[in-house]
Each structure stands twice: as C-alpha cells, then as structure tokens.
Specification:
By secondary structure, this protein is an alpha+beta fold. The protein is about 40% helix and about 20% strand. The structure holds histidyl-adenosine monophosphate.
Length: about 425
C-alpha cells in the first residue's frame, strides 16, 4: 500500500471503528459503577493555563519539566492537560463546588497529553478515568477511592495485579523524613546519578523512585518514611490499611512509592500488573490535602486516583478478555433498484424506532456485493427488496445464521423482530 501523505502525530493514535466498541463498553462500565458509588461526572477543558499545571503538579516533576505540550496565543499560555487532578481542583475552586455541601465525589473520563517517548502502554495522547473526592480527610474517602478503582478491574475480570501502598507523610513528617534521607545520602552524593543529585536539595524523596543503576545501593538501605510519620499521619495510614483488610483488598506496603507529582500528602498508592511489560502501572493516586489551598481555595483535604485506559485494554488483550460482543446489525436491507432504495430509506427509521438496528448499502452495489457486505457486517437478517416485493407488499427476510427464509409484510417483520 502507498505511504499515506498525512499521518497522525507520533504517540497519538486513532481509535478505529473496530476498536471503538470496546472503548464504549469500558466507558459504560465506568459510568455504571460510578453511579453505584454515587460519584458525579465532571468534564473540564482539554487546555488549561500553564501556571495552574506548573503550580499544581510541581516545577521539578518530569511531567512539567519535560513532558508538557505548551503553546502561546497572544498573552495567554496554554498547556494540553497532562492529568486531571489540578484541573478538577481548579474547577472546584472556580465554581465554589464546596457550596453544594458535603464532600464532592467527582469522576471523569478523557484524553490527557504528555510528550513522552512512545512505547507499548505509553502514548502522547492517552486516556484516563479517575476519581477526585474533595472535602474529606476521613480514611473512608481514601478507601472508597481505592475500592472504586479495584471494582472496575474486578468487574472486567483483571485480577492479576499488585496494590502498592505508602504514606508520603504530611508536611511535618515529611520535613523530618527528608532530613533523615539527606543525612543518609549525603556521604555518597557524588556517587548518585546526575538526576538524583539534582533532586537532593529540593525533592530528595523522588530519589527513592530512581531507576538508575548507580542509585540502587543507596536507596536500598535508606531510612523509611513509616519511621518518621507523626501520630496523626500514622493513625490515618493505619485506618486506611485496616479498612482495606476489612474489605479483603490485599496490598503491599512499599516505602519507596513516591509518585510523580508534588501534590501528594499521606496516602499514596499504585496498581501494577505483570501483564503490562515495562509500563506496568495500571493506575495510581493518593491524597493531596494541600492542593486546593495551593490553587487558591480554602484549605481542603482531598484524595483521588487515575487509571490508564489503554493499559487496561492491553491487559484485557493479554488475558483474552473480550469487552464487547462481536459487531453486528439486526437487519441489512438489500435493495434492488431506485424504488427499493426509497422504500429502504423511509423504512429503516421504523425498525430503529422499535429498537432494532438496521442499515442498507450506500453504494448502489449489486445484490451479490450487498449480500457479501451483510455478511461482513455480521447481519442477523437480510431483508430483500426489489420491484416484485414492492408490488406484492411482501419481503424476503433471511435469517443469515440458519439460512432460513420467510416472505412477510413489513408489519409482520416488525412484529417478529421486536
Ligand atoms: P499518573 O500516575 O501520572 O497519575 O497517571 C495515572 C495512570 O495513567 C498511570 O498509572 C497510567 O496507567 C496512565 N498513564 C500515565 N501516563 C501515560 C502515558 N503516557 N500513556 C499511557 N498511559 C499513561 C495521575 O495522573 C494523577 N492525576 C492521579 C491522581 C488523581 N492522583 C490523585 N488524583
């Protein structure tokens, strides 16, 4: 085949008609389960102000320093949203959603943009679904958030995963921990990777997340944050783990789990799957009790997660999980001649109104080609319409699977298929 003149950008993919049914099935599951949890949907713009994203996620994070798609128009600085926590918080503050009363239990589905090097499970435009619960510091909110995340995978049948959990502390515990971590790393600072050396002053906890070989030996013996949590933070973490145990959700505590955004406080978690290869994170999230204030709102605790939808679909493929029934249409109108085509155009809606899916050939093809097309579309029935049929007022309805034919009036057909 000839090379196309235009292609989509690298890392930005089309979801083609053969794939869209599984996306829709996944979206339906998310909407249904969200309704069961009483989460409400929020939809925010694809573009946000650069400063919101920089402040929200953190200047020194990989996302902001390397992966942002940013541009200017006039005096405005835009970014394509790389995630939705900061935008949802922006919307919460801007529209005073706190005044609706109680905590806001929000969920979303949509595309995000990060200029990462594309590979399996990593795209530049990808999709997330997620939840943000804003206004509660109760460990119940943490656990309901995690339970919703787990419920989606459970319902789909993905069971092979690991839930990693950590507390990244509140500001007080974190200062104490950072000091201990710096003390531990300082004597060998010059032996650490360059990225880790850069993180040493401003964000030493991110060093724990380093994949660089030369860092591993120093990370291995580093002090763990659990030993530096103050009483309140330790108690919060204990309650989260106790509820998870009550719900029989298994987890492992990973003291090196720090996550890629600066907004996290206290609970942090990640769901990984061995079926995904190197990009193994299905989903991640945690508390961000300081972000609402950082973005200009009242001090308001919050917790949430987001999950990669492409990665979920990759896991389904690896596990041979079919998210949709095969594509099919109930009735394919096979038309012979102009009168037949007019009849079809005006009678297709009658079937559709009755909840029966129906289509016809749009290309004035031969009967043979239309029958072939009906097979390709996996039609349950074909309805053959020619001049004779129109004169008699009776049409041949063919059951394609059982190769059985009936000559019926249109009303009889409607009755039979309804
Ligand atoms: P995140 O860990 O950056 O968290 O992203 C969540 C999930 O999005 C990842 O676990 C992964 O499945 C998917 N993902 C991330 N980058 C890509 C990519 N380039 N290609 C494909 N999938 C990707 C957040 O975004 C936070 N906002 C989560 C959160 C919500 N925390 C609190 N509330």
């Amino acid at each position: 085949m000839a090379k196309p003149k235009y292609t989509s950008h690298v890392g930005m993919v089309d979801i083609l008609p053969d794939e869209s049914p599984k996306w829709r099935a996944l979206e339906n599951i998310i909407h249904e389960e969200a309704a069961r949890f009483n989460f409400e949907e929020i939809r925010t713009p694809i573009m946000e102000q650069t400063e919101l994203i920089v402040r929200g996620i953190g200047q020194l994070t990989d996302i902001v320093s390397k992966e942002i798609f940013a541009f200017e128009k006039g005096d405005s600085h835009y970014v394509l949203r790389p995630e939705l926590t900061a935008p949802v918080v922006r919307s919460y503050v801007e529209h005073h959603l706190d005044q609706r009363g109680g905590s806001q239990k929000l969920y979303y589905i949509g595309p995000m943009f990060r200029a990462e090097k594309p590979q399996k499970g990593r795209q530049r435009q990808f999709h997330q679904f997620g939840v943000e619960v804003i206004g509660s510091d109760d460990p119940v909110a943490d656990v309901e958030t995690i339970a919703f995340m787990m419920r989606i995978y459970e319902r789909i049948g993905i069971k092979n995963f690991e839930l990693k959990l950590n507390s990244v502390g509140d500001p007080e515990s974190r200062e104490a921990y950072k000091a201990a971590l710096r003390d531990h790393l300082k004597p060998n600072l010059h032996k650490l990777s360059e990225i880790s050396q850069n993180r040493f002053e401003k964000n030493p906890m991110r060093i724990l997340d380093s994949k660089e070989a030369e860092d591993q030996e120093f990370i291995k013996n580093a002090p763990v944050i659990q030993d530096y949590l103050n009483e309140e933070t330790a108690e919060h973490f204990e309650k989260v783990t106790a509820y998870l145990e009550d719900l029989e959700i298994s987890y492992t505590i990973d003291p090196h789990l720090v996550r890629g955004m600066d907004y996290y406080t206290r609970t942090a978690f990640e769901l990984t799957s061995p079926d995904l290869g190197s990009q193994d994170a299905l989903a991640g999230g945690g508390r961000y009790d300081l972000l609402v204030e950082e973005i200009g709102g009242q001090p308001t605790p919050a917790v949430g997660f987001a999950a990669g939808m492409e990665r979920l679909l990759i896991a389904c493929e690896e596990l041979n999980i079919e998210l949709t029934a095969e594509k099919s249409v109930d009735v394919y109108f096979v038309t012979l001649g102009d009168s037949a085509r007019s009849f079809a155009v005006t009678h297709l809606p009658k079937l559709r109104e009755a909840g029966i899916s129906a289509t016809m050939d749009y290309m004035s093809r031969s009967m043979k080609a239309q029958m072939k097309d009906a097979n390709r579309e996996n039609a349950r029935y074909t309805l053959i319409i020619g001049d004779n049929e129109l004169n008699e007022g009776k049409f041949t309805l063919r059951n394609m699977k059982e190769s059985e034919e009936n000559s019926l009036t249109f009303d009889e057909i409607l009755k039979k298929l309804r």
